[in-house]
Predict the structure.
Amino acid sequence: NSKNAGEPKRKLGSTAIRELVRAGAVERAADLLGRHYAVAGTVEHGAARGRKLGFPTANVASAGLLPLPGVYACYLLRLDRGGHHELRCWPAVANLGTNPTFSAGTAGTPAGTTLEVHALDVDLGDALYGQEVEVAFVARLRDEATFPGVDALRQAIADDIARARPLLDHAGERLHVRPLTAGSPGSPESPGGAASPATAS
């Protein structure tokens, strides 16, 4: 039946994508999808450890299929109440895992797992608490690690950000919106503030 001829191929493709995501191969998954693999979730209050380290994070509780634990270059997108993009998108770095240096957990994700997303060059403050967001994974930077103290962790985060920047500079074409940077329309640091949307790409 020609009507169902493409069904096995679609199933094979979706299975391959899930396997790639579980393995942390989000770049290869994006090649099959034609866009970055993303999960939606709600921003919840966390322990505020990222802010104390100088890297405030959005703690995202998601029931979606999460990739292999580790540190990722990604984009953080805010969704409206209908689950659509609000044309607000920030380049970011995410830590997905059990947070072994501090051992914490966030409701809504698999037991003991947290998804913490740091938007680059902008402090979103409390603006995203309770909001629906999407995390679009661009590249896996490294495994999650346990550090001997906060200074070593702080340096590792700074190194992660430095590695993520060039990857994010060249990955925006697989987004439906233009990423925001400090001073761009829609950024809290721009004259228009957060009320000004970024333009669609």
